[in-house]
Structure formats: C-alpha cells, structure tokens
Amino acid sequence: MSLPWIFLAVSVVGLLATLNAHFPLRRSAPLRVPSFFAGWLTGELPLHHIGWQLLATFFFAAAGALSDWPGWLGLALCLASWMGLLALLAPAQAARACIVAASAAASGAAETQSPPATPLRVPRNPFALSDPRIRRSGNIPYVPDAGPRQQLDVYRLATGVENAPVLLQIHGGAWLIGEKRQQGLPLMMELARRGWVCVAINYRLSPQHAWPAHLLDCKSALAWIRTHIRDFGGDPGFVAATGGSAGGHLCALMGLTENDPRYQVGFEGADTRLAACVPFYGVYDWTEGPDAESGRIFRRILERQIMKASYAGAEERFREASPLHRVHAELPPFLVIHGRDDTLAPVQGARAFVSRLREASKSPVGYAELPGAQHAFDVFHSVRSRETVEGVSDFLDGVHARYRSGRTQHPRVREADPI
Length: 419
Hints:
Layout lengths: L2 H20 L6 H16 L1 H17 L6 H19 L1 H5 L1 H12 L27 E8 L9 E7 L6 E7 L14 H9 L3 E5 L11 H16 L5 E11 L1 H11 L19 E5 L11 H15 L8 H6 L13 E6 L7 H14 L4 E6 L12 H23 L14
Parallel strand pairs: 3-4, 3-5, 5-6, 6-7, 7-8
Antiparallel strand pairs: 1-2, 2-4
Helix pairs in contact: 1-2, 1-4, 3-4, 6-13, 7-13, 8-9
C-alpha cells in the first residue's frame, strides 16, 4: 500500500474509535467488552487523543501522505474525528452538576443550586496517581494469618491527622481479578488531601473462593477499621464505603447487610454499620441480566466461577447476593453513580436499584447518571473523573459535617469495642 492509503486506513480507525466513544455497542453482548476497551480511553482522554493524532498527521504529511487523494480524504476524516473528540468534553464537564444534584438528594436537601462553572481542567498526566503529601502504609493484614488477598493499605496526610473521617475503598474486577492499588486512587488522593483516612482493601477472589467470601472479607476489613484505625488518625465512629463495578456491588451489600451475623462469621459482635455508601457503576442483580443474551452469559460466569452452584438449585443464594433484592428501610444514605453509556454494567440495573432504594429506605438516596460515561471512568484522572471526584468528596464532607454536628437523621455507629 502507498503512504496515502496507509494514512487513510489509520484515519478510518481513529474515526471509528471516536464514533464508538459516542455510540458504544450495547445491543450485542459479545461486542460490549471490545466496545468498552475501544472507547474507554478515547472517551475519557479526548484531548490526549487529538494530540497524538495531530502528531501522527504531521509526520504522515511530512512523509508525503498528502500526495494523492486518499491522503486528503484521510485528513478530512481526521478533522471529523477531532471535532467528535472535542464534543466529548461537554458531557464530561457536566459530571459535577450531576453529582451536585444527586448529592443534594442524598443529603435530604429540599433544593439544589447549580455549581459555579469551572474552567476546563485537563490532566497533564492522567496516570500520575500518587501524591508526595500522602503517606501510604501498605499490605497490612486485617485477619489473622492473612495472605495477600486479605491485606489493606491506609492513605493519610504525611503530616498526620487526628479523629479523621474514614473511607473504605473496594476494588472491582468481576469478583475474579483486581487489586487494591489499581482503582479508586483519584478519589482517595482527593479525600486524603482534605484530611480523610482512606483504606483500600484486597479480598479473596473467585474461582478459588466461592461467594460470599468476598463480602465476608469486606466486613472483616471494616471490623479491623473499628479496632485499629485510631492508630492512623482515623475516627472509627465514621466510616463510609465506596467501590466500582464488583466493588460497587460489594459496597452496596455492605450497606444493605449491616450487622448481619451470616456475613460476620467469627466477629458477629462487630458493628458493621456505615455512615454512607457511594457505589460506582455496580451490578445490582444476580438473578438476571439487562437482556436475555447477556443474562445467560452473566449467569454462566456466576454459576461456574463465583457461586459454584446452579441458579436452578440455589435461586435464593443468587437473590441474597443481589442488592436489588436486599433493600429495606434501615439503610445509610446512598449516592449511586453510573455512566449512561456503560456497556459492561448497563445503566438499567442502576435505575432499578435506585428506584427500589427510594421506595424503601428511610435515609435519603441520590443518583447521578453521568452522560457519556463508560464503565471505570474514574480509574485515572480525566475531565470527568476530576469533576466526579470533587463532587463526591464534597458530598462525603457534608455527611461528615452533619455527623459531627449531630444533625444526621441516622447516628450510624458508635465506637465498637475491640474484637
């Protein structure tokens, strides 16, 4: 192939990536995963994509790619792709307004005020996820004889904190993969800078361990926090939980099964109530999928890898593992966050879960459905993740302020006795 044709082919690929970021493939279950990976970085880092495409176009042009009509057609396609990438910025910046409105609902506020417009802030290095001001104490076991899957990391200001609110971060990975240092870092760094103590945990994974080992470990970590977090400057009386994807599912179940002895074997007396739950793009129903095709695939994974049981013979276990079917009145405040364009955990599941929460819970429930957002949009720094992280941090600061002033409707926890 001549250089103009190669440039045209590269331009077509770039334009298809942009189109996929705008219109991800959600109808066909087998195409959802490749559509996610193809659109994830494109949708979250559009200006970075324009940057490398401009650089590539310059080199192609300098090498003679515009010497024939295919090259000029490729340039036209590049211009169309860049316009499409720029159009992704507006919904990304709208995330803050969505979070503010949802936070007001989750706080029980009667009215909301639109946040002031913020200038476009593009991260120079989206993957710079450390901060010299933050100290990490790593790989701390939270149960006796713990292996690497039952350890946690603690993040707090290097200058020290005292009686600080605590965030429990639960990673995702389809209950099969994932690690505590891979997710939630933008939110934890922001909260740690604000004086919080953040705890990121590992938990046992399938297929080596069947459900509910994952949830038992999350609760074990919370019991450890109640007993030991003062050593790191945290307040054991105020712990909020968050997590994404499978971590969002586990975070939601933490709030829905507070003090349930079935999931606290060996530490039944521990107080596992939470001050707030903030699940990101979780899967809330294990009994069915958003449609027949994806439901069959999802159920097959659950049966073979995670539950180690057939749905027909253990339907009640699948229901018990589904936040949608565990909703009741006595719950902490929830702020549920989901991307409208999520192809891995379709948004219909979040809508159904929030509807059920609002019907039953005595505590306020907020829901932020972010336009243009894919799955895992908050794993690294982007325009959308920064707006979301700051909005969620403001919400959690507000919950903590009401806790400290005694104005919360639900005095969630007392300081637990040592276990």
